[in-house]
Amino acid sequence: MKRYTVGVLGATGMVGQRFVTLLASHPWFSVGAVAASPSSAGKTYAEAVAGRWAMEDPIPPRTAALTVLDATADRAAIAESVDFVFSAMAMKKGETKLLEEGYAKLECPVISNDSAHRFTPDVPMLIPEVNPQHAEVIPYFRKRMGLKRGLIAVKSNCSLQSYLPALHPLWEFGVERVLACTYQAISGAGKNFGTWPEMVDNVIPLIPGEEEKSELEPLKIWGKIEDGVIVPASEPSITTQCIRVPVSDGHMAAVFASFAKTPPLQEVVDRWNTFSGIPQALALPSAPKKFIHYFTEADRPQTKLDRGLENGMAVSAGRLREDTQYDIKFVSLSHNTLRGAAGGGILAAELLCAEGYIE
Question: DSSP labels for 97-144?
Fold first, then answer.
């Protein structure tokens, strides 16, 4: 595989920092440009994140010395200097949408962590093990936009990663109804306990906008391409409650599901344990060897113990039981800034490179 030079937009924020950290030792991708808001532009990356570096690993030395560019004003120069960009900008939705389209129009592919284009019908919202076939919509996007190389691909909301992967291997049983209560870490809000002391010993029963994303985005992910656009699935019916809890990293979900044909519990476990996708078949660098890990212990998965499975890219599940109101219930867990954000974006980029969508 060739080496790609990449840019990180929004590189000074928490997700941007995670991109920078993960890309420091990536075998295919190397960071050639970092960009953020005008307030950070002109500083070295080390200066721009001084006092707010939130990662456990130190700032990668090579990236630390890069000059931060203005993601908007310098987009032509950035697009010229890299093969593609990762987008993690903290901007208003409309502004982000225009910014990402601007890069695509400059023939610079965009892999976005933002929600701005998640419901653009010819933009794939990728969980690489679940819906890699949605990349096939990219030629239609290019035709509509008059592009040869530019594209936009997005990742889903981080809350979905805690339960949708566990439901997907059961799809052929006809998933009809889903109730998911998610318990979401503070890093999902771009915070840590130092910057959000109010979260210590506290639970907030509202994450604005999160439940709508959690209920609607799975339908696009499970949708089909028809006439050049992704048509969302009509089922299952999904309802969610999304709650902020005092945990640094890791989103957990309590999931209840009903099916057209109820799968035996052992069949559920077997499908979780054996499920594998294209990222595993291609041995993509960021792909976990085993996508879903099932725990038989009654008190697992646990956030602190299990969020880091396979470098934070695996999903864990446990407490599978029959339910009195739904067919089955279980608990599942994912790392929200790794599988659910930067790591998932990097895996999506690996898939698009491996399949020739990014050359």
Answer: HHHHHHHHHTT--EEE-SSTTTT-TTS-B--TTT-GGGGGGHHHHHHH
Rounded to the nearest 10 degrees, the angle between the axes of helix 343-354 and helix 14-23 is 50
pTM greater than 0.90 = yes
| Residue from 117, 251, 293, 335 carrying the catalytic annotation | 251
The superfamily (CATH) of domain 159-335 is Dihydrodipicolinate Reductase; domain 2 (3.30.360.10)
Rounded Cα gap, residues 242 and 212, in angstroms: 10
pLDDT tens column, 90-138: 899 999 999 999 999 999 999 999 999 999 999 999 999 999 999 999 9
Read off the pLDDT of residues 278-333 as tens digits, 9 standing for 90 and up: 999 999 999 999 999 999 999 999 999 999 999 999 999 999 999 999 999 999 99
> Do residues 316 and 332 lie in contact, with contact meaning Cβ atoms separated by under 8 Å?
yes
Per the annotation, the verdict on 353 as an active-site residue is no
Assess whether 158 carries a catalytic annotation. Answer: yes
Domain 4-157+342-354, CATH among 3.40.50.720, 3.40.50.970, 3.90.1150.10, 3.90.180.10:
3.40.50.720
Annotated active-site residue in 158, 242, 293, 353: 158
